[in-house]
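User: quick one
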Amino acid sequence: MKKGQVTIKDIAKELNVSCSTVSRALKDFPGISPATKQAVKDLAKKYNYRPNAIALSLRSQKTNIIGVIIPETVHFFFSTVISGIEDEAMKEGYNVMICQSNENYEREADSIDALMRSRVDGILVCISRETDDLAHLQRVVDDGIPMAFFDRLVEGMNASSVIIDDYEGAYEAVEHLITQGCKQIVHLSGPDNLFIGRKRKEGYVSALEDHQITLDERYVVECRQGTKEEAESAMQGLLDLNIPIDGVFASNDMAALGALKVIKKAGLQVPEDIAIIGFSDWQFSALVDPALSSVAQPGYEMGKSVARLMFNEIEQKEKIRSEVIILDTQLIVRESSNKRKAPVNLAPSAND
Amino acid sequence: MKKGQVTIKDIAKELNVSCSTVSRALKDFPGISPATKQAVKDLAKKYNYRPNAIALSLRSQKTNIIGVIIPETVHFFFSTVISGIEDEAMKEGYNVMICQSNENYEREADSIDALMRSRVDGILVCISRETDDLAHLQRVVDDGIPMAFFDRLVEGMNASSVIIDDYEGAYEAVEHLITQGCKQIVHLSGPDNLFIGRKRKEGYVSALEDHQITLDERYVVECRQGTKEEAESAMQGLLDLNIPIDGVFASNDMAALGALKVIKKAGLQVPEDIAIIGFSDWQFSALVDPALSSVAQPGYEMGKSVARLMFNEIEQKEKIRSEVIILDTQLIVRESSNKRKAPVNLAPSAND
DNA sequence: CTGAAAGCGCTTACAG
DNA sequence: CTGAAAGCGCTTACAG
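Assistant: Done. Structure below.
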């Protein structure tokens, strides 16, 4: 018995024909006698022949693999993105090679290198928080390998990106609070050095402006790490100021949760006294009490979208590069911001 | 300018030496003149030369890629497993190719096929719920490709598995409830046709037995789908029976959550009237009110563990096959089952 | 110290 | 209808 999988050569030898013939028979080339064709196919099936993708890749200069670099797999949002990429890839006959950077620059650079050695047909990347030197990414572009970014925008590089409309999502969330009657709205903001954090803050500011509410900087507190504890002390600090507060827009769900806890502990009612809305990093906002309103991010769609962008670029070899696709968020109103206690109509329906 | 990445041939041509020389210079072979060596290395760096992994694989018959088949990436537990696999693989210089089966037999079989074509060095699989025909997996073993299972045990196949100690985890959870004073303990069980579901039920039964509590079959209700709604109606049904209940052990967190909701709605106190403990599928058990006690599953460790098993098998080519590694769970006592309201000591400490 | 040759598994122009 | 040859990028025994 031979070790490893069967090759064309093995079949050729057993049938006393050439490799060329086997290759052609397998692919139903015209001009192969039906008898040979059948014999080859039978043997291939019997031995469970599978074409060696490595050999094919070497010859065709195409691996049908795309590489994905992601900060963390253990994160609801990112795992939905992976799922979208994976589904789209399988549909298109591509394999997916995944590298986790753990938000670490070194590992991101190493991963890029590993993927380039593997001669993947394209690379999808969500850059790590730490990354500010873009040389490793520039090399990818220079070598002519298609690359696209997702979730975290990278500017000034000749590559497309798919991102969330953070500005609009934030705007809608704040406008929703205003519609509910809120006038003194706190913003627990994301880190100012992150594009995402800045955009969400801008949305908050614009929504206030458009509704003639003057911005009071005391109402904006930056939560750099995005932990619950951090948000708790931020919120406590705000309550201690003794300024009127009737709404909270948090840049992420964890912060919203921290705020919720502190507000409840202070004996205030949610949403009656203070309404709260977050920005979704995960799926469990609905499980807390009261259920947390949130701005949902279309992770699965994002995955599908970057993957599709990539496959188009690979296959058509059109260098459309530098396209930016912006995906809409969805406002999910639950108990924590629903002062009217009536079911809120989210999706446009026939009688709208 | 050439398209694609630089090859040894390109360097050889530019330096007027042979490919052999370039190859040897790059690898610091003895018996290459320092001058040539330096020239080659300089040029390699200048052109950002990266060895073509495809060519290497074809020659060495080793890809340094492992394949992973997972039911769903969007699942906290599975994403931690992936993370463990990924970290271990990167450490050992392997790449990871991920396929998502979506709990679908067809897709699982296709993925196995794709991975085999890619000539991965080994395959890690968590079989889909649907899978009962094992032929596609048997073929992997027959072709001599190392394979290992995780999370869901597959018996009667010459391959190792890494699983959770579901029996023991369940036993400890129920014993904990008993220690808290519970005597009438409900079990919302997982599907009987899943190994996991059966083991957890066995743990429940044994714990009762060992504490001289007679099993009452009315207290055991199967929740096949593991949805919150299902658990809610199961729990409601139990309350309607008007039998005494002071504890609930749910086979998964979602079911525990459903039970919690119904119990609270019935005006009963948790944990005072009824204590509840779940089995962790996710990280947010701590966020609900009261915080949910649960049996934590070591997903990250599981990932590291299967990966290590695989790399050992690949590298030593020892066929230790059919080893079963059973990982311990960890009892996490939070508010929902802590009747004494005192912090519970979980980890063994010096004064134990 | 260096090179030519063979081979990993496949495909495909070129002959016949 | 079928085969021999070349080549994808690399390594390595074999010569020199």
